[in-house]
Amino acid sequence: MSASEAAEGEAGERVRRIVHVDMDAFYASVEQRDNPSFRGKPVAVGGIKRGVVAAASYEARRFGVRSAIPSSRALRLCPELIFVPPRFDVYRAISQQIREIFALYTPLIEPLSLDEAYLDLTDHLEGRTATRIAQEIRRRIFETTGLTASAGVSYNKFLAKMASDQRKPNGLFVIPPEAGRDFVAGLPIGKFHGIGPATAARMEEHGIRTGADLRRQSLEFLTARFGKSGCYYWNVSRGIDHREVKPDRIRKSIGAETTFFSDLRDLAQASAELQPLAEKVWRHAQKAEDRGRTVTLKVKYGDFRQITRARSLPRPVHDAAEMLEIAQELLAPVFADPHGVRLLGVTLSGLEGAALREEEGPRQLGLFDRD
C-alpha cells in the first residue's frame, strides 16, 4: 500500500496492514510437484469410484472440474482426469513449513485451513511495506516448498481475501484504502466472501447483483431479509470490516465422514459404519483436550440430497460409545430412503477446550455454560 499505509483512515482510525495468503490449488499442486508425470495434466485429489473432488489442478479447472463436485461428474467433464488419493499427512507437513515462514514476519497469524491464512503486519513492518513483505513470503514459500502462493494486501480481512483471488495463480494484488469502496462497488455479489450461491440468488431476486447494488440497500432492509448477516453485508459493501486477525481461533467442532463404494441400504450395516467415525472424532477430541455437548449426524443419500440431525446434552458427551449411541439413534428415523445412503458423517460441537477451561478456572462438575 506504500504511501497510503502510513495514512489515517477517514474516521481517524489507524490503517491496518492485512495480508491474505492462499496456496494455489494446494493439494493438487503438491501431487504435481511430487510426481513429475502429472505436471501440465488435469489432476484431481479424491476418490475415482465414489466421493467428491477435494482439489483440482488448474489444468482440470479449465474443464469445469472444481472441488466438492462428485467424482463421477468430474470424469464426465474431463475424461482424461487423473485421480490421486489424498495424502493429508504430507499436506499437513507442508502447511507447517508455510506457517513457520509466516511466523518470521508476525505472530498474528490466523489459519483458515491448511492452505490459507490471514496475517496482520500492522505493528511488524520494520521499515518495510506490507506489499514487500507479501512478496518476500511468496518467494520464501516457493524456495522452501516448490509451490506457488497468491496473496492479497489491504486494510481489512474482507478486502485482503478478495484481493488474493484477483491474480491467481502465483499473483499479488493490493487494494489500498482509497480504492476499497470502488473495488467493492464493481464486485459481483457471487464473488463476495461470505455470500454463498443460495444467498446470492436471494439477493438477485431483489435486484442486488453488484457491490454497488448492495450498498444502495438500507441496513434495515438487509437485516430484515438476511438476519444478523445483514450488518456484515452493509459494512463490506462500503469496504468496512473491523474483524481482527485472531491467532488462536477457537475450534467449534470436530468431525469425520466417509463415502461408501456402494450405497448402503441396510440399517444395521450403516449403524456399524458409524463406529469408526465416532471413535476417530473422539480420538481427536481427546488429543485436543476438547469436550463437546452436541453430536451431529450427516447423511447424504444416493441422489446427493443431504440432511443433518443433531442432539445436544446438558453436559459433555462422556465417551466414544455415548457419541456412537446418539449418532445411531439419530440415524434410525432418517435411514429409509429408496436411493440408499452414500455418505455418513459424525461431528462433535459445543466444544470446551482445555485452554478455555484453564482461563476460566475450575468448574463445578455437571455445570457447563453455553458457548
From TrEMBL:
CDD domains xref list: PolY_Pol_IV_kappa
Binding residue positions for Mg(2+): 22, 115
Residues carrying the site annotation Substrate discrimination: 27
UniProt KW Magnesium keyword: yes
Any single biological process term in GO: DNA repair
Top-level taxonomic group: Bacteria
Gene3D superfamilies from the UniProt entry: 3.30.70.270, 3.40.1170.60, 5' to 3' exonuclease, C-terminal subdomain, DNA polymerase, Y-family, little finger domain
Enzyme class: transferase
Co-factor requirement: Mg(2+)
Enzyme Commission code(s) on record: 2.7.7.7
MF (Gene Ontology): damaged DNA binding; DNA-directed DNA polymerase activity; magnesium ion binding
Catalysed reaction equations from the record: DNA(n) + a 2'-deoxyribonucleoside 5'-triphosphate = DNA(n+1) + diphosphate
Cofactor-binding details, from the entry: Binds 2 magnesium ions per subunit.
Cellular compartment(s): Cytoplasm
Major location (coarse): cytoplasm
Keyword terms, alphabetized: Cytoplasm, DNA damage, DNA repair, DNA replication, DNA-binding, DNA-directed DNA polymerase, Magnesium, Metal-binding, Mutator protein, Nucleotidyltransferase, Transferase
UmuC domain ranges (all copies): 18-196
SUPFAM superfamilies from the UniProt entry: DNA/RNA polymerases (SSF56672), Lesion bypass DNA polymerase (Y-family), little finger domain (SSF100879)
Active site: 116
PANTHER family: DNA POLYMERASE KAPPA, DNA REPAIR POLYMERASE UMUC / TRANSFERASE FAMILY MEMBER
Family according to the record: Belongs to the DNA polymerase type-Y family.
Quaternary structure note: Monomer.
Physiological role: Poorly processive, error-prone DNA polymerase involved in untargeted mutagenesis. Copies undamaged DNA at stalled replication forks, which arise in vivo from mismatched or misaligned primer ends. These misaligned primers can be extended by PolIV. Exhibits no 3'-5' exonuclease (proofreading) activity. May be involved in translesional synthesis, in conjunction with the beta clamp from PolIII.
Protein name, entry field: DNA polymerase IV
